[in-house]
Amino acid sequence: MQSSSPLDSNVQFLRGVGPVRAEALAQKGIKTVRDVLFNFPRKYRDYTKLVIMADLHEGDDAIVCGRVLKSQRGNRFGRVKYKMVLSDVSGQVTAIWFQPLQGLESFKVGDEIYVCGKVIYRSGFTMVHPSIERVAPETRRAGKITPVYSEVEGIGDTSWLRLSEEAIKTGASFVREILPSTLLGKHGLPNRADAIKELHQPSSTAKVEAARRRFVYEEFFLIQVAAALRRHYIRSLPKRTPKKMTPLIDERIRARFPYKFTADQDKAVAEIVADMTSTTPMNRLLQGDVGCGKTAVALYAALLTVANKQQAALLVPTDILAQQHFATVSKFLAGSRVRMELLTGSLPVAERNRVREALAKGEVDLVVGTHSLVTEGVEFAALGLAVIDEQHRFGVAQRAELRRKGISVDALVMTATPIPRTLAMTVFGDLEVGEIKEMPPGRKPIRTLRFPIEDGYRAHAFAVDEIRKGGQVYVVCPLIEESGEEEEDTRSALSVYESLSQGAYAEFRVGLAHGRMSSVERERTMDAFRAGELDVLVATSIIEVGLDVPNANVMIIERAERFGLATLHQLRGRVGRGDRFSYCLCVADLKSEEGRKRLDVFCSTSDGFKIAEEDLKMRGPGEVLGSRQSGAPPLKYGSLESDFEVLKMARADAFALIESGWRPTDELRTEIARYGNDDVNLAMVG
Fold first, then answer.
1. What residues have CB less than 8 Å from 227, skipping those under 6 apart?
2. Highest averaged pLDDT of the listed ranges 353-357, 608-612, 617-621, 678-682
3. Beta bridge partners of 415
4. Which domains does the chain have, with CATH numbers?
5. Which residues lie closer than 8 Å to 620 by C-beta, 6 or more apart?
């Protein structure tokens, strides 16, 4: 079958590629001419700014050109070491490598070469692990800006340059513009084809930056158009009969709770009631730390739905969390006429069928469940509210599927991992965002301390005292088992379990839970811990979400420097749920600068919103989005920190266009679908 466009041609047929290189490129997701064109350089070497060696300064990121005076291979601390001394007319530079660099030994004394890297001063100017390139007629770079691409085995910088040149010859003229011309003119952005050529064949740093900015804008625009379409879809649904709220309904709902709502909970309830009593379905995200009272607010919304003779569904990511929510809600609703059911994959088939039948007949008012709720066989008689808890565990498709099971369904998604406002704008631009920052009165603060690895025994000695006072202890480890030389110092959950159950906690009952156990075995262990039949639970971060044990008051996190801030914060939220004073003890390698910075932040605040902002600064949006948000597109070109102004610009443009009646072209829809790995029509009901 012939390709519809040269852009879709197999990369193998570009001159100089062939089957071996094509396979190496395919491993990196580069399979077509289009993929080559949109695989932009990761950085540039500006050979218009060659530095003579006498003008170097410590800390410079510099490119120098010189001849090899000396080249030797040595051995230091058991590692291969290469060393070269280079000179130009003004001075000398030493280049050293502690790891082999492909082709390094081919450089001989007398060769003229470029080296590029960070300059340090060690008895003279030195570059550690610089890039290196021979000066030859075809690679003479002086006066040029040269792209540097991500490494692909067997394809060096010169080969990449040839490959991108061939791709431009073959496909650049077939690249279609997808942005409205009015936006290009408004923001002074180059067209798509010209920007691609500039990024691969740069003519000036200013034009490279303009081309990069164009694709940053395009990336944000695609995300925001999808968000604007989702919002438009919800708002354009036929006007519905709004739910009714009266003082009597409010009074009866609040009577179900044994405490008064906080001011933040009242504000969240007011926003939700305003949404639910409008003619447009609610589309809201509720953020707040573990224990701030989001579940109570969600139950308020569910009871308002039931009062309007409609059904409410609460979707959670795990069986154990579903059981806990069901138990909590059952307590609040004891003696009421609200008909409740639990629907999870672990229920016997006959029981699942009974619940499904009851839902379809309208004999259930409120159902708590897992992914089982979004399966094909589940139908509702009159679904009026879908609550999705821990929303980052669910993709757009699952949220959309639950919503489709009713007509004009109100949607409330909740997260206990607060998302920085910049990220919320990017990923949840279609949702109204509410926050609960205030904690219920009487909740005791969790004291967070850290210990260097060599003092880890002190953390366990403290935990032993707490067990003797009647408390329970979590011990969390970063890996299940040792994973090779680089991680040989990692204390795995299995080895920690064996060590602690025979050592520090030998007199106590110790359990183990990790992701490689069967779900039945794992939940049996967690149930035993919850029931007080275990004193210590050794686990991986699998307990980050979904285990509520009020009596557990000590959390020990082994090798805490290996965890991200968001995960550390979630883990800490497992304690401090009861009447006991609670503690989070971090045992860490404090020699790691990055890990130490994270722990400085973690130990200094328990505010999840502050932690989320710091997490974004430290890890960047790609990591935060990629690891926390199921179904969220990773950012290829933009940065939420340095390009935030471009994001705001793209957001304003996208929403204004959609509200004015403009609709994306087929090409733009294709790009949205390709970019987000989700059907664009699906995104409209997410």
1. 428, 429, 430, 651, 654, 655
2. 353-357
3. 287
4. 51-142 (2.40.50.140), 446-605 (3.40.50.300)
5. 639, 640, 641
The DSSP bridge pattern shows strands 536-539 and 472-476 to be parallel
- 450-459, pLDDT tens digit by residue? 999 999 999 9
- Whether residue 40 contacts residue 637, with contact meaning beta carbons closer than 8 Å, is answered with yes
3-state helix, strand, coil in the chain (%, to 5): 45, 20, 35
Strands (E), 468-517: 472-476, 510-513
pLDDT reported for residue 397: 66
- Rounded to 5°, the CA angle 161-167-168 comes to 90
Cβ–Cβ < 8 Å for 219, 635: yes
Percent of the chain residues topping a pLDDT of 70: 88
Show the tokens assigned to 295. Answer: 């579940």
CA distances from residue 646 to 39, 422, 467, 620, 636 in whole angstroms, order as listed: 21, 12, 53, 16, 15
| CA separation for the pair 401, 408 (Å, rounded) | 13
Cα(594)–Cα(6) distance, integer angstroms? 46
How far apart, in whole angstroms, are the C-alpha atoms of residue 83 and residue 95? Answer: 6
Return the DSSP state at 511.
E
Q: Alpha-carbon distance 230 to 681, whole Å?
A: 9
Structure tokens at 568: 């550390």
What is the 8-class DSSP label of residue 512?
E
Crossing angle of helices 205-236 and 644-659, in 10° steps, is 40
The string of DSSP letters for 238-288 reads PPPPPPP--HHHHHHHHTTSSSPPPHHHHHHHHHHHHHHTSSS--EEEEEE
Angle 611-616-619 from CA coordinates, rounded to 5°: 110
Distance, CA of 349 to CA of 352 (rounded, Å): 5
Nearest to 133 by CA among 95, 90, 162, 99: 95
Predicted structure pTM score: 0.69
Q: Which residue is listed with tokens 């890990």?
A: 595
Closest CA to 250 of 198, 324, 307, 169: 307
Give the whole-angstrom CA distance, residue 541 versus residue 476.
Answer: 6
Least confident residue range of 363-372, 400-409, 451-460 = 400-409
Pairwise CA distance, residues 476 & 452, whole Å = 16
Residue listed under structure tokens 């690891």:
627
d(CA 686, CA 427): 11
The strand pair at 92-97 and 79-87 is best described as antiparallel
CA distances (Å), 27 to each of 35, 41, 150, 298, in order? 12, 18, 13, 45
Residue 652: the pLDDT is 92
CA 479 – CA 162 distance, rounded (Å): 43
Q: Which residues pair with 296 in a beta bridge?
A: none
**pLDDT in the model for residue 459:** 96
Give the pLDDT of residue 629: 42
Contact partners, residue 625, CB within 8 Å, separation at least 6: 423, 426, 427, 632, 633, 634, 635
Distance (Å) of CA 605 to CA 198, 270, 295, 452, 610: 46, 29, 23, 20, 8
Rounded (5°) CA angle 466-469-471? 60
**Helical residues (DSSP H) of 404-539, grouped into ranges:** 421-427, 456-468, 493-502, 519-530
For residue 108, the tally of other CB atoms under 10 A from its CB is 8
Beta pairing class for 79-87 and 125-128: unpaired
